[in-house]
Specification:
The strands form 3 sheets. The chain has a 4-stranded mixed β-sheet with strand order 1-8-7-2. The chain has a 4-stranded mixed β-sheet with strand order 4-3-6-5. It has a two-stranded antiparallel sheet with strand order 9-10. About 10% of the residues lie in helices and about 35% in strands.
């Protein structure tokens, strides 16, 4: 087994649901067309590897959407032990991401990033399909 990725800065994350804030932003820059439903930045890959190293019973992360917030939809991100039949699998740099069926069209062409500052650490989705977001950036509509 390879050594764990070096820590970025971690908080306590326990349970089967990842406890990180997730922010939806419309893509301000033009994304390069790709065949993958979702691309990950190197920082996002590193963080996911770090999280999965701490929880070896899981094989990857599942991304979904649910109805929530003042603007309609929000992203969900959970640890997963298996791929469901309807999930689309994205493998990038050794990281496995499973996209739930309901989220597949919503996420098409999205770039997933991870950011940290003094006040927050969060996965950020740069999604060219978003038509609007709420003020806090946690919910969106397409």
């Amino acid at each position: 087994s390879s050594p764990p990725p070096p820590p970025l800065r971690t908080g306590s994350m326990s349970g089967s649901i990842l406890r990180a804030s997730i922010r939806a932003v419309s893509a301000r820059r033009r994304l390069i067309p790709t065949r993958a439903a979702l691309t990950l930045t190197p920082v996002a890959v590193h963080k996911i590897k770090q999280l999965l190293w701490e929880k070896p019973e899981y094989i990857g992360m599942t991304i979904g959407v649910r109805t929530r917030g003042c603007n309609g939809l929000s992203y969900t991100l959970e640890y997963t032990k298996e791929k469901r039949d309807s999930d689309e699998e994205v493998i990038q740099d050794g990281v496995r991401i499973f996209i739930q069926k309901k989220a597949q069209l919503t996420l098409l062409g999205t770039e997933m990033d991870y950011t940290e500052n003094k006040l927050a650490s969060e996965f950020v989705f740069h999604n060219p399909n978003i038509k609007g977001t709420c003020g806090c950036g946690e919910s969106f509509h397409v």
